[in-house]
Sequence to fold (309 residues):
Amino acid sequence: MLVDRLLSNLSVRVEPFALCQLSSGWRMRLPGPPDVMLHYVLKGRGAVRGPDGEARTIATAWLVVVPPRADHMLETGGSIRDELRIDTTPAGPPVQSFIAGSASTSDLVVACGVIHARYGHSLGLFDRLREVLVVDLSGIPQIPAAFEGIFGEQSSAVSGSATMTSALMTQCLVHVFRRLPREAELALPWLMALKDRRLVRAIDLILDDPAADHSVESLAAAASMSRSTFAERFVAAFARSPMSLVHHIRMQRAVELLELGTLSIDQVSSRVGFASRSHFSRAFKKHTGASPIQFRQTINAGVLPATSD
Fold:
């Protein structure tokens, strides 16, 4: 089953959430962070507008998935008269509140936050998402309880909070993928690719050992396909060639290893399949915008540079 495969290989990290509260007739403009942003409607009814300007209705217990780097808007009421612009993503703890209008007259209350959800720690679940998704999660009692738990953990920030919030968000994402409408599946073709066991064999081979001497031929053989068929289906699913994805996963794994800080740069280079440190450094800088040394310095300073797709 697709959901079972996702769950067994899923890693989730949750950034601080905020409460976005809107009075009738108000609009809230929100920035598009480098990773996907979620909005869970705690109360009321309104609309979300993505970069295309199309209004999508949202209501209590509905979840909105906003593509990476997509500026968007929340609004409520029949006629918009006022607007609040938010220029930063939520920061905490404690949980922040953004109020458009008056908190005492809020007609729409939404939990807003950024998540990092990856398959095999390297493939972003929503990397190819280009439009706002709206999923009706009403009638699932675990969802309100999960968000209440996330807010509780992020408000207290006690030991183990990060692990607990990741587990609660993973539970929510499982319900999301159970209820994805057909058009959403078409917007995320690589998820559909996971239903093809032959492609999965090749993907898991890359994820299990990104440093191996992979080639299109070896991966096609693992998938029991001809080279041309494998390459065609791979590009259709991931919008990149097999070797481009191998390179991407190697760089993502290098980021993880550098963040851990237990290996030298030479060791990281070797672990992700580079025989030359200089070659690795050039590739890493192209991927992240920083050399491995600069990246490690930013980690030590508590600042994470954004990586490319």
User: Anything to note?
Assistant: The chain has twelve helices and twelve strands. The chain has two domains: 2-180, 196-300. The longest helix spans residues 242-260.
